What we know:
Layout: H1 36-42, E1 43-50, H2 51-58, E2 68-72, H3 79-94, E3 98-102, H4 110-120, E4 127-130, H5 139-147, E5 152-155, E6 166-169, H6 172-186, E7 191-197, H7 203-217, E8 222-229, H8 234-247, E9 251-256, H9 259-271, E10 279-284, H10 287-294, E11 300-303, H11 306-321, E12 326-331, E13 335-338
Parallel strand pairs: 1-12, 2-3, 2-4, 4-5, 5-6, 6-12, 7-8, 7-9, 9-10, 10-11
Antiparallel strand pairs: 11-13
Helix pairs in contact: 3-11, 6-7, 8-9
Amino acid sequence: xxxxxxxxxxxxTGATTALxxxxxxxxxxxxxSTSSADFASLVNADQKTSISAVEQSLGAPKxxxxxxxxxxxxxxxxxxxxxxxxxxESEAKALGVKYQTFAVNDESSITExxxxxxxxxxxxxxxxxxxxxxxxxLDSVFKAALAKGIPAIVLNDAKGTVPGVVYxxxxxxxxxxxxxxxxxxxxxxxxxxxxxxxxxxxxNALNRGKGFKAGLAEHTNLQLVASQTxxxxxxxxxxxxxxxxxxxxxxxxFYSQNDGMALGIQTAIAAKxxxxxxxxxxxxxIPQAKKLISEGKYTATVSEKPxxxxxxxxxxxxxxxxxxxxPGWIDVPAVLIDKDNVSKYPTGMP
Length: 350
């Protein structure tokens, strides 16, 4: 029997996301100083809950005088991280919290980001927020921060395993699965598909790829004929996609692990005269991708919510500093955008 094709819901339900009771408790019993053990005890490591549910339970956070939040991001040349920073800084400003952002110049420079994160530890930060370039690149900083009584929060990418660190963002595996399901729905008769991957050291790249391949495995009429890294680079993606289309002229769809690379793929598809014939599904939901979707030059994007994530990271930090328990994973689900709903997202990123 043929499996019914449907796009997976991006907001999971059930036991993994069931809202446990998030009650306030003191991280500083008797007014003493907060230790790493205290913060670890405030994080429900195995709990995954949507940001809306956490807000409903804990209420609006309040900042004590003198609080300063520090965000170690990636390169702001990638506009996605610019929106993540905007969410962080705007929320901190709205809540009257001091803040500082540390950005790197090179998207792939783990060493540069580590130096920035270590520097942040010496800047009087009350909490450290970061978007690690690789899954474990900043673990030493997170451990050092917690040892000093400083909460640590990961925004969007590498959900780590350091006890006491909170992850704020979507499920990257689900994003890849959703892309595969959407392509299957677009190609009911099946066909050949290709994937352009992000940096192989990135947690997002690894998990989106894992989810995409798992999704394809459920659609046996789709054949993955090529998959190669372009390391988040638009020009590399264009070159690789051109080579793939030359080797496999009957490719019917591309999945790109971010929209920046997908812009390069779109150029390659257009150069071959295949716009509208070869489906293109990206990830992130950057404004240029949505513009091309509205023009019929790009099929869809699995859009994340970096502005919401940045703001949620500020709230998580303040909840922890107030001694409130938070989930180990504050879920900010992605949403699929195509021609049917792109008009709902005319500017910026949610």
